[in-house]
Design a protein that fits this description.
Elements (H helix, E strand, L loop, with lengths): L19 E3 L3 E3 L1 H20 L9 H21 L7 H17 L12 H23 L17 H13 L1 H34 L1 H6 L1 H38 L2
Antiparallel strand pairs: 1-2
Helix pairs in contact: 1-2, 1-3, 2-3, 2-8, 3-8, 4-6, 4-8, 6-8
Length: 251
């Protein structure tokens, strides 16, 4: 008798050796491989799209130009004129997150944004950059950010710790939001797919008809996850821009 499929919804997030240890220092897992692949895809699309530099752009060039204008608009609208300086960072951040979200939807690929180590690392990088920018623009005056102007000085022992905790919670919220959305979507894929096979095994021929419902839900989830992939990359990028706006303008 064939063994019934079991639900191991979190098994898809386990890291494997991939290329294995490199130089005895780096364990190159399948997560790293997908990161490299995602980077290569983005660089390849940009290089091929801008090779012609046509006055009337083709589809690929239009895609690159739309992407450029979208991220540039995001930087300028959220940060101000100074946002142009941060365009390379926001552009890289957006597409790194987006490719991690999208590539994980393909069979045999891996969603590296489903690991809190990756999303947490990105969030810490963002907060370190924001703090460095704030100190670069305002020096020690940056610390006035933690005590809003006009607030009663008697409330400083309460307000300052709250503001500091709020500031330090930014990388937590950034990383958990992205990580949780990616994990939740892929776990639902696994659960519905396994449920489909369980119905076929338990109900025989009738099971094929009963399995149509979870299969339909899985197909619907694919469309929903495509939307979430773009939305989460956008949220990560726009929150980074908002934090940079606070750092540049100190309010």
């Amino acid at each position: 008798m064939a063994a019934e499929p079991t639900i191991d919804a979190l098994g898809q997030f386990r890291l494997h050796h991939g290329l294995g240890p490199i130089g005895g220092l780096v364990n190159f897992t399948q997560s790293n491989e997908i990161m490299v692949l995602g980077t290569a895809i983005v660089l390849g699309i940009i290089s091929l799209g801008m090779r012609q530099r046509a006055v009337v752009p083709g589809r690929l060039q239009s895609l690159v130009e739309i992407s450029y204008n979208f991220i540039m608009g995001l930087c300028v609208e959220q940060i101000g004129h100074e946002g142009k300086k941060f365009f390379p960072f926001i552009f890289t951040l957006f597409f790194f997150v987006l490719m991690g979200n999208l590539l994980g939807l393909f069979p045999y690929f891996f969603t590296y944004t489903s690991h809190v180590a990756v999303t947490g690392g990105l969030a810490v990088l963002v907060i370190v950059l924001v703090t460095a920018v704030a100190l670069r623009y305002h020096g020690l005056h940056f610390f006035s950010y933690f005590f809003p102007p006009g607030a009663p000085k008697a409330l400083a022992p309460i307000i300052v710790p709250i503001e500091i905790i709020s500031y330090l919670s930014r990388p937590v919220s950034l990383s958990i939001r992205l990580f949780a959305n990616m994990v939740a979507g892929h776990v639902m894929f696994e659960v519905f797919a396994t449920f489909m096979f369980l119905l076929i095994g338990a109900l025989g021929t009738f099971g094929y008809f009963a399995a149509l419902l979870p299969m339909t839900l899985n197909v619907t989830l694919v469309g929903f996850e495509l939307l979430v992939a773009f939305l989460q990359a956008y949220v990560f990028a726009i929150l980074t821009c908002i934090y940079l706006h606070d750092a540049v303008h100190l309010h």
